[in-house]
Amino acid sequence: MTTKTRVKLLAVVGTALALLMGVVAGMALTEDVRPIRPGSRAPDFRAVNLATGDTVSLRDYAGEVILLNLWATWCAPCVVEMPSMQRLHEKLGPRGLKIVAVSVDTSESDFVTRWVEERGLTFHVLHDQFGAINKDYQATGWPESFVINRDGVIVKKFWGPAEWDDAIVSAVFERLLGLPQNAGQR
User: Fold this and answer.
1) Mean of the per-residue pLDDT values for the chain?
2) Residues 82, 121: contact at Cβ < 8 Å?
3) What is the Cα–Cα distance from 57 to 48, expressed in whole angstroms?
4) Radius of gyration (Cα) for the chain, nearest Å?
5) For residue 84, which of 165, 159, 169 has the smallest C-alpha distance?
6) Can you tell me the mean pLDDT for 132-136?
7) DSSP 43
8) What is the pLDDT of residues 29-46, one digit of tens each?
9) pLDDT category, 115, cuts 50, 70, 90?
10) Strand ranges (DSSP E) for the chain?
11) Hey, CA dihedral for 105, 111, 114, 115, is it positive or negative?
12) Vertex 131, ends 139 and 153: CA angle to 5°?
């Protein structure tokens, strides 16, 4: 191999190595790339509270145990899980559980409000018409849900619909709320 060829090869390898190091360093320094998973701090978000019309954020629920649910009116699995979410709200809402369901529908808030009212949902329903929360929480589909403890840390992540008032699932929330097991059944 000639000296000229070696120099070209070293230049190519050096450039490739520098690019790789730049990508790795960029990933390490960029918050967006860190996976959102149990143990992660729950990212803040902003959405419209359909009941009040006010813009709220996760900070408004600081110190609460939260079930954060990302959903849409057109999502069949989302529709399926809503009744069990309502039952969980009726069971543990009075004991401190905050259910925060954020609609990512691109339609106007009035449409989502009517949809919620027709189904008699009484937990907190927010609307993020532009779907920024999808990026913040790295959503891969709907519904996608996050259980957040009082310290703002995600303790569990659910993909797809869940039977929210199931005894095993309820026990997770009872434990986080500091309630005796099956306390919500009283």
Assistant:
1) 88
2) yes
3) 9
4) 22
5) 165
6) 97
7) P
8) 555 568 999 999 999 999
9) very high
10) 46-49, 55-57, 65-71, 97-103, 124-127, 144-148, 154-159
11) negative
12) 50
Where residue 28 falls among pLDDT bands split at 50, 70, 90? low
For 158-172, the pLDDT digits (tens) are 999 999 999 999 999
* Distance between CA atoms of residues 25 and 137, nearest Å: 22
Please give the Cα distance from 147 to 65 (Å, whole number). 8
Residue type, 176: L
pLDDT band at residue 26 under the 50/70/90 scheme: low
CA distance 128 to 159: 19
Burial level of 125, CB count in 10 A (0-12/13-18/19+)?
Answer: buried
Phi and psi, residue 151, nearest 5°: -90, 5
CA atoms within 13 A on the CB side of 108: 3
Q: What are the tokens at 104?
A: 């990512």
